[in-house]
Amino acid sequence: MLTFGLAILGLLVGPFLGIIIDRAVNKERLVATHRCPVIEGETEVDPDELPERCGADLGARSLLPILNWFQKCPTDSSHRHWRYPLTDLSTAAVFAAAGYRFGSDPWLIPYLALFAVLVAASIIDLETRLLVDILTKPAFLAFAFVVLVLSPGLNIADNIWPAFVAGAFYLGVFGLLHLISPASLGLGDVKLAPTLGMAVGWVTGDIVMALRLTMYSIIVASLLSFVVGATAGMILMKDWRKYPVPMGPFLAIGAITMISVSSLLTA
């Protein structure tokens, strides 16, 4: 029942994450309404260029889950943006996963907050191939603070060292990969890595298990990105290696998956 309730909560939170997604890239003031991206036509858009925004006010209905999925852009009646259902459904899914893993334990709250940030960061990365500092840096500082300050009160003080060791391991792996191939793994992925490592490592009091979970999450993320990239390449009839998919969403999926099933692996 809790898992179902958190899924409904995720549907309600999703539209408000959309506001952050609308405005986080350009560090704009948050306003309680969505606006719609301009359609670039059939021509390919340079992934390094930020998409322009038409600035059209979508009104209060844009904050209603499910109903906003059918909302059309005021400047182009043929356009419905894929972002809105993806954000709402993704938030519902990760909230349900957190409920499944943590139940009513108090450390459910920091994971719900982190998962919401990961959804927003992933959607932005899909659209712009950017993991923006305005999300990744505060997420790291906030989660490190939570691990240090809340662990003793939650009776999981033994989990502090595994969390930070896993975070350092994540940072080392992705920092090295970035140095080897900056075109394949951006600096934003490196900045997100220690937060994901801490989140994965914090679920256990054993450093070895924390490192195992981080390795599993990296493997899941790598396999997913390869499969999705290759599949997209075959569908588009292009060499998928020339159009690398953003890694941020897959890193988030890998970490969330391992966190969700960690109780089964550590039993």
The tally of domains stands at: 2
* N- to C-terminal distance: 23 Å
One letter per element, helices H and strands E, the order comes to HEEHHHHHHH
As laid out across the biggest beta sheet, the strand order is 1-2
Mean pLDDT: 82
Shape: globular
Strand content: under 5%
What would you call the structural class? mainly alpha
Number of strands: 2
Could you estimate the helical fraction of the residues in percent? 55-70%
- Runs with pLDDT <50, length 5+? 39-53
Output the radius of gyration. 19 Å
User: Major sheet, described briefly?
Assistant: 2 strands, antiparallel
What's the helix count? 8
Explain what the structure shows.
- The protein is mainly alpha-helical and 267 residues long.
- Helix content is 63%, strand content 3%.
- It is built from 8 helices and 2 strands.
- The chain has a two-stranded antiparallel sheet with strand order 1-2.
- Helix 2 (83-102) packs parallel to helix 8 (248-265), helix 3 packs antiparallel against helix 4 and helix 3 runs antiparallel to helix 8.
Salient structural properties:
mainly alpha, 267 residues
Topology at a glance:
Elements: H1 2-23, E1 35-37, E2 53-57, H2 83-102, H3 108-128, H4 133-153, H5 160-180, H6 187-201, H7 207-236, H8 248-265
Antiparallel strand pairs: 1-2
Helix pairs in contact: 1-2, 1-3, 2-3, 2-8, 3-4, 3-8, 4-6, 5-6, 5-7, 6-8, 7-8
Could you give a quick summary of the protein structure above?
This protein has eight helices and two strands, in the order H-E-E-H-H-H-H-H-H-H.
